[in-house]
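Teaching note: in complex prediction, the entire set of molecules is handled at once rather than each chain in isolation. The prompt given to students was simply: 'Predict the structure of this complex.' The entities are:
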Amino acid sequence: MTIQKILLSFEPEKENILPLLQKVNVHFGYISKDDVYRIAEYFDMAPAKIYGIITASEILKSEKPSQLEVAVCTGPHCVIKGSGEVLKEIEKYLSVKADRQADERINLKTISCTGHCLAGPIVIINNNVHENVKPAEVDDILKDYL
Amino acid sequence: MIKIKINQKQYQVKEGQRILAVCNKYRIEIASLCSHPNFSDFEKPAEQDRSSNAVCRLCLVKARKKGERKYQLIPACILKATAGLEVITEDAEIIRLRKTNLELLFVNHAGLCAHCSKNMDCELQNLAIKYDIDEFRFVPRLNEIESNEELDLLYEKMSRRMIDTENPAIVRDSEKCIHCGRCVDVCKNMQGIEAISSVGKGNQAVVGTEYNVPLECSYCGQCTTVCPSGALTEKNEIGAFVKAVNDPNKTVIVQTAPAIRVSLGEEFGMPPGAIVTPKMVSALRECGADLVFDTNFGADLTVMEESLELAERIKKGRGVLPLFSSCCPAWVLFLEQNYPEFLSHLSTVRSPYMIVASLIKSYYAKQNTLNPKDIFSVAIMPCTAKKYEASRAEFRKDGVRDVDCVLTTREFGQLLRSKGLKLAELDDSEFDPALGISTSAGAIFGASGGVTEATIRTAHYLMTGKNAKEIEFKQARGSVGVRLADFKIGNFKLRTKIVYGLKNARKVLEELKKGEHDFDFLEVMACPDGCIGGGGQPIPTSPKIRRARKRAIYAQDKNMSLRMSHENTLVKKIYDEFLIAPGSYKAKKYLHTKYHRYHYKWRK
Amino acid sequence: MQETKIITKLCGKIDPFSIESYISRGGYQQLLAYLKNIKTKKGRLQAHKKIMKLVEESGLCGRGGAGFPTGEKWRIAYQKAQKSRQPLYLIVNGDESQPGAFKDSFLMKKNPHLIIEGIIILAYVLECKKVFVYINGTFKEELEIMRQAVTAAFEHKFLGGKTTDFKERIKIKIIQGAGGYIYGEETALIDSLEGNRGEPKIKPPFPPQSGYNNSPTVVNNIETIANLVPLLEMGAKKYRQLGKGNATGTKLFSVSGAVKNPGVFEFPLGTSLRAIIYGICGGMEKGKKLAFVQVGGTGDFLVGKQLDYCLTYEKGKQKIPVGLGNILVVDKNVAVEDLMFSWSQFYARESCGQCTPCREGTYQLLKIAERLKEKKLMEKDYENMQDIVEVLEKTSLCPFGNFAAQPWKKVIKFYGADFFDARKRKK
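The expected output is the structure of the full assembly:
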């Protein structure tokens, strides 16, 4: 689907801006600069404002995601369940530090609570949720993605 | 009127008025970095106003409504006056809270003051001094950049800090930004452009553009007049001016805009509206200008050409109506960017300073056998958009720019201060007569409605063959953003619309798009109250200050003997000697310009 | 102690994807009964009065944390809409994103039609044509279930039409939220729906007066809405008997942390922590010792006798503010520093970045937490922390700033000021 087609599936009304951004984000994996200008034109909104909405959101991405997107929950519950150790293992395995500048290949970041607390610690890799992750399992899980 | 108490003292105020505005009026100082008198809701907010959001949290006061026992902390900018309200603007707790918040804001500024162009003229700095913030106990949120490598990385990854020097008019340095949101507010609520917005969230939040592209707006510069720190400033061109002055081969010719002479004094502590024309001219000579011309003269020529254009469009049906004024470069650019379909409505006459500039490098150069390349043409303007306009390709002949450098009122003040010149102590001097004789029709260009009034004065003469009995067309004056004014010219009723603020202009254009229009002439100025509220004018600005400037403009008009452009002897002389007649091919060449749909540079 | 299953009665017993399984268990009966009553204008007004009275009498209050009386909220908005002739909007807040809260997600996954039925009845009562259900953007499964539930309700013609006096067809729009804690704040949520960044706004005006598109707007939590159908079934008197004092009805508790059986449980308000943790949750996990319990996000660190206080919306002695009903059980193996870092990180990340104390203050607190964790506290950190906590509490724009200050306040309250001294950088 092209951006044009996605745009035309929405009425250019303010309440549709968020659903539209969600759709573009899911479809292309992120919302590119060009797309922002197209959306801005269609909705008759300022591009800066749309970018503001995108960057305020945890889900919408303004940059192309890395090949390997790893998110480790460090919310209070997961911390109690030992996500600190899991994060350390992952940092060691990928030899990158969490929450530093991402590169094309790897983006390792920490997140705060996704509501899956019962199954903590939670690790989300390329949108797949891994539950009850133990430090010892990190190698096995990550191996599949590399 | 109701009674309220502020710091135990009683005041009579309007019900619903904001306490910050009340305190402002009675000179009770309250620290505030996000509210601004320029905002429409500063005095009295609409009933369900949700646009303003008290975000700086510095103007907190303690207030107790009638019948309440306890005082509550509430921002003065949203606190509305109700009968019997009691307010405490400062006590130990309030000072402590303000200080902590200020310190939090000031962290990112550590060590930046000395080389900031706003140094000593900065609201944030003033507050820091007042609240005695001298130690930095917190960690900067936006890190300073240490190496070029880091810089590349930041640009590449579009990280939080951004210095935009690429656009022609405004410098934006996000490191100095304290996220008060004033610029976002004026850009959205005054100009309706929203070139900048809050970006990111939490500890990544900054004010910025989409994907950190350089600003590509109308360059009105209103954001620079409200920015409380040095994050948004005009692109400084003092260096270029000084260099030209020091170059023996260059003849430096300066012209000054009508709105400068009633505001420049503020840069030197004079009250708003002080008329400083003779001192300003001599200050320019002190700075090394070889000649000083008057933009008002250009305005007279603008009037000649524009009133002819209007008369022809009305009488002979040449071209479309309504006719749009073209004196404001921000308005012209706004139209080119957003409404290219209306460009045929735009008067083709250049703005006054471009007319003078054009004549300097053609007529004047020829008369005095000067090479245009050796002339350094400077314009002192109340405007940042003129900096952009001067860079336009249309205003360039054989690679030579018509205007080489535009300085704002603020930069001019800075230049004088750096030379140790005190405006009040200078002798009086006059404009050089070659291109320096003007009527007061040119002088009133500085206020919103002035272009219309000046044009009508001459159009009346053109259309009826005689001058109007009463030449002060007061219906053109006023301080509302959108005004309708009708003029009787002989048997003809000329309907005009006078607008300031691009958001207002957008509304008018949208109506026009639907085919609804009840006017023949549209004057638009991007800035509040016209050029006297321009983006390059002295800081602070407020409706009150602008009223004083406006009064001075109209006082000038009253005191001059020549008040109509067609009576200007110099205008007649130039037409006779050089331009032939209004609307001639030569006038078209030197006094008119072309417009085109704007192509965004950084959007691809 | 057994659960008191009022709103979770059918959870686990029906298929969330099948409207039939809900109907077969008595679902949508309340709606159908209501629809029968509102065929004429007179009937509709009577039914409106009856339900408003019922809800006000029941003492039901908002389950989103603040505990505002639900009936009053509806009344204010309804009266304002009638007076100003503006449309009334209903927004159902499913943007559950406080750490350790997962009861709305549980409800949506287990019994979506209970929520939809409540929404439709309420929409009729308030004469509301358009309902938004704003669901946390990361809840993929819940979104899918809710979307299907709305479609099914539509297909079964539950969303109205011409058979009643209220001729409009009610539109229920499921919105995938932008993802972020701040969108749970009602004015931020409305701002987001209006196509903005989602920043909290100054109150007043409160949403029932002026909310979405400046119209009167009712924002209710998912759980609050889920209370409506059971309330209609049992009547105000019986409902009031659940709970304690003025805090009536049941509450869903999300229990997480070091207990044997974490999960979502329903108990009457006024229940004690001990009854939950050592009752249905089966006590502490094997080999773990209780350090303290936190309720409602960043509440007090509770130990000992405090576990017997009652969880309620009322204020007073020996009462624990229940908030969203999330209970975090912390054991002694957990380093408090790690927990503090986790909370600080959460708040620094989730602040909307609008007002000074919150944007800058939460960042400074995060930096202090970082140093705390690495045992490298600086001389002035304690004093700095106290100053920041003060401005967060007293000067921030929305309640979020106050929340962000709580972990620090609570840790000092629990461990005393020398908590910092022991963790300073060794000289």
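Point out the following to students. DSSP finds seven helices and four strands in chain A. The helical segments of chain A are 3-8, 17-28, 33-43, 47-56, 76-80, 83-94, 138-143.
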